[in-house]
Amino acid sequence: MYSFFVNFFNISSIYTLLGLFALAFIFYLLKVLKNAGVSNGKIMALSLIFGILLGYSCLYLANFPHQNILSLKDSTNLRPLYEIYVWFKFIIVMFISFLKLLIIPIIFFGIIRVIINLDQNVKFKNIFGISFSYLMITTAIASLIGITLAIVMQVGSGTINQTTTKIIKEVKPLNEVILDFIPSNIISAMANTNVLGVVIFSLFIAFGANILAKKDENIKNFDIFRNLIDFIYKIIMQITKKVISFLPYVVVVMIANTFLENGFDAIISALDYIVLCYIAAILTLSMHTIVLLLNGLNPIKYFQKALPTLIMAFTSRSSSGTLPMTISTLTNKFGVSSSNASFVASISTTIGMNGCAGFYTGSAAVFLLNALGVNITFEYIAMIVILSVIASFGIAGIPGIAIMALSVVITGLGLENNFALLATILAIDPIIDMVRTATNVSGGMIASIATDKGLKTLSKDVYNS
């Protein structure tokens, strides 16, 4: 009977049950606060605090073990910590799986809905042109922010050559990258969450429908098709709202598990680079503030309303996983037209990521150059910025994908053989990935809001409410 509980339920000790009871109590407390009318932003902030306290308490009671959390499975004394990690991971994976289940339907039906309902006075090329420009320019500025901070803080100087399990990703030629954007099998593209592929296929269907709608005999069928797409999209968004309502509870587990997975030793050993990335994120968000001000919008309103979505991105480490909540926030809280919200938010999960392809690749490249003792000239800075923008094309919005963007930049600099020197910062990648993802999502929302404002379709009453 004991082995059954250990192997099937992953419960071998009273300490495991105490950890799960503590989590259940936190969930109950959050539920009570929510029912009492406490604002969503405050509940999310409390979720972060509870997550930190829970994670720290678990490590403290286990005397801050130095072993990898997975290696504790066969430990006699520390197995309860592993079991708590497994249960926490179960909750996280289940929640993220539900979100991922919604990503492709939201993009597919959302993009089609965007095009077939597009105001005839607003051209598609205007939406794409404005949003693309915002995403590229903000990514370039974010990269420059990362480069500047890394040079000032001299990160990487004196780094000892270390080995790492992370390997450089193969960088494909431009022609192959472009061909990869066009899916040869839409089912495969959907199954592999190929966002750009699904976007392109959705555009083909929508444009085809619009062409057919110009003929009188197709108008009735087109209206039926449009109403069907609208209704399916509403169903998907209703499901999305229900899934997102569980976010405060999942945030607690996500934060706690971040501590369990990485411990405090890894955090302390690369503290300077962690600090750099978080400062870079703050400066990038400041740049987003400037964009809002230039568009005559109140940045305080933006951050107040965007906070729950940014916390979701921070804890989930997935721009794509946050997409349903991003679109919902843009339309319901900021008054962005559903067409711009769906389209711009979708492409921002794979193009122009301010965090992953912006300040992260810029600062990491300088880290490597400093480690090699290379004199960083203006030519290097310009090359890193250009490569960062190029690297932002087609990277999926999933946890850890920034390594792909970093690989592109390092290979472009001809430093791929020195990738092992980045072992220190790669070891704490999940901690950095959290703030990277939040910045990515903010950049996408800013681009969507600014695009909508530029096209004069933004509801200022909703934005300022």
UniProtKB/TrEMBL annotation:
Gene3D superfamilies linked: Sodium:dicarboxylate symporter
A single cellular component GO annotation: plasma membrane
Membrane topology: Multi-pass membrane protein
Keyword Metal-binding attached: no
Gene Ontology MF terms: L-cystine transmembrane transporter activity; symporter activity
Compartmental location: Membrane
Pfam family, one: SDF
Entry keywords, A to Z: Membrane, Transmembrane, Transmembrane helix, Transport
InterPro entries xrefs: Na-dicarboxylate_symporter, Na:dicarbo_symporter_sf
Family according to the record: Belongs to the dicarboxylate/amino acid:cation symporter (DAACS) (TC 2.A.23) family.
Name of the molecule in the record: Sodium:dicarboxylate family transmembrane symporter
Organism: Campylobacter sputorum subsp. sputorum
Name of encoding gene: tcyP
